[in-house]
Amino acid sequence: MAAPPAHVTGRVAAVLRALSAAHRTGALTSEVARASALARPTAHRLLVALADEGFVDRDHRTGQWYLGPELYLLGEVAAQRYDVTQYARASVHRLAAAAGESAFFSARRGDETVCLLREDGDFPIRSFVLYEGARFPLGVVSAGLVVLAMLSDREIDDYLRQTDLTVQWGPQHHADAVRERIARTRELGYAVNPGLVVEGSWGMAAAVFNQAGEPAWALTLTGVESRFRDDRRPGIGALLLKEAHALTQLLQTRYQQ
Predict the structure, then answer these.
(1) CA 141, 142, 143 angle in degrees (round to 5)?
(2) 179 shares its domain with 53
(3) Which of 19, 106, 135, 159 has its Cβ near the most Cβ atoms within 10 Å?
């Protein structure tokens, strides 16, 4: 379990992230406390204070907490500077159409990746591990793996030294196993998740880089295992790398304007 945030700002951020992860169903106070590594009274006090400012909202019939309207208004303003989904949407569409699988665009947020876009291809059997708003730690799912793999060795060492992915994600996410997948990802240029999160649900991803050359986003294709056979993966990888390179170039051009 993660250590509780030490400062008020960190605690507020942890609460908001917990509600973001539960945006579809909402979360009870106890669930927010557990997800944010806070004591329940602390989580409740922060939720009430955030509700007073409109940053969170509560359904008093069920007791579930949700992100509030004030965050939507702030997000609308922030999107003018940070929203890149308008540029990524075309890449996601082309990937879904070309591969027939579900295509995604995710962003790195600290030590996590957050799914921002999803579009399904025409193949009728789909994987639902990823969805818009889903958060995963770096090193988990193909998007998190490719972002982690493209960081510097020092950043990878620091992250794996302070993060135990096995607690939630099982022994297949031991640091040594993650390092092996990082090496393979660097060799190929794209990441492969062979059903490590949900058995039979495969994913592949390529990193999209910002102006500083840092892996800030990822494009992903997911589907059932039979659609990611040995003979098909190189073609899927090539599609991902092509679109990731094109989107990197587009975003870098956009930020230079």
Answers:
(1) 95
(2) no
(3) 106
Rounded to a whole number of angstroms, the distance between the first and last alpha carbons of the chain is 43
**Other Cβ atoms closer than 10 A to 240:** 27
The predicted pLDDT at position 253 comes to 81
The contacts of residue 239 (CB under 8 Å, 6+ apart) are 95, 98, 99, 221
CA 41 to chain centre: 29
Residue 109's domain comprises 83-256
Structure tokens at 56: 């969170």
Q: pLDDT tens, 123-180?
A: 877 776 778 888 899 999 999 999 999 999 999 999 999 999 999 999 999 999 999 9
Integer angstrom CA distances of residue 241 from 33, 157, 220? 40, 26, 10
List the structure tokens of 196: 């490590």
Written as six digits, the tokens of 102 are 């579900």
Examine the domain organization and report whether 181 and 208 are in the same domain.
Answer: yes
C-alpha 215/C-alpha 219 separation (Å) is 11
What residues have CB less than 8 Å from 59, skipping those under 6 apart?
26, 66
* Tokens encoding 224: 């059932």
pLDDT of residue 255: 63
